[in-house]
Amino acid sequence: MIAYLEVLYNNENILLRFKMYEGYGKIAPLFSEIIAEGQQQGLFNVDDADETSEIFISMLQGFGERLASQVLLLGEKPETAEAVLRKCLAFEKALERLLGLKGGTLKIYDPERLKQFFDYFIEKSNEKDGGTRMSSEKSALSVRQNSGGGAK
Predict the structure, then answer these.
(1) Most buried one in 44, 54, 124, 139, CB count within 10 A?
(2) Predicted model pTM
(3) CA of 97: how far to CAs of 46, 65, 92, 100, 131, in Å?
(4) Is-contact 57 17, C-beta < 8 A?
């Protein structure tokens, strides 16, 4: 996963990312069908499934790009892990609102697994740099969690 992110978000691969984003447009009708079905079943409260699908995909693209860049920076700035976690949970809430779901209904991210992933990423970055960065045991999330000030 780490190598994938590093390669995909290398500036030399911007064309590849562009082509991937074009592909999202091709799956918009599928998302539209899913949203329309959820709307018919009373699960989603949206005005227009097609428009909601377009916005949904735009949010996924934009957040995915932002999240990847922030995760890649965790190796250099492990103290930002808690902020990245909060953004993931905020994104989840934004999708709930877009789909007209009751708060807490959509569970995309497991905060504990995200913390584990961030700690793993920080540890691997530390190993790559010869141990000069903060170890996973001392990442911002681990320190706060152990002191009772875990992520919200």
Answers:
(1) 139
(2) 0.70
(3) 9, 21, 9, 5, 42
(4) no
Query: Would residue 151 count as lying in a domain?
Result: no
Q: Is residue 115 part of a domain?
A: yes
CA atoms within 13 Å, Cβ hemisphere of 64? 14
Domain hosting 35: range is: 2-146
Residue 152: inside a domain, yes or no?
no
* CATH code for position 71: 1.10.357
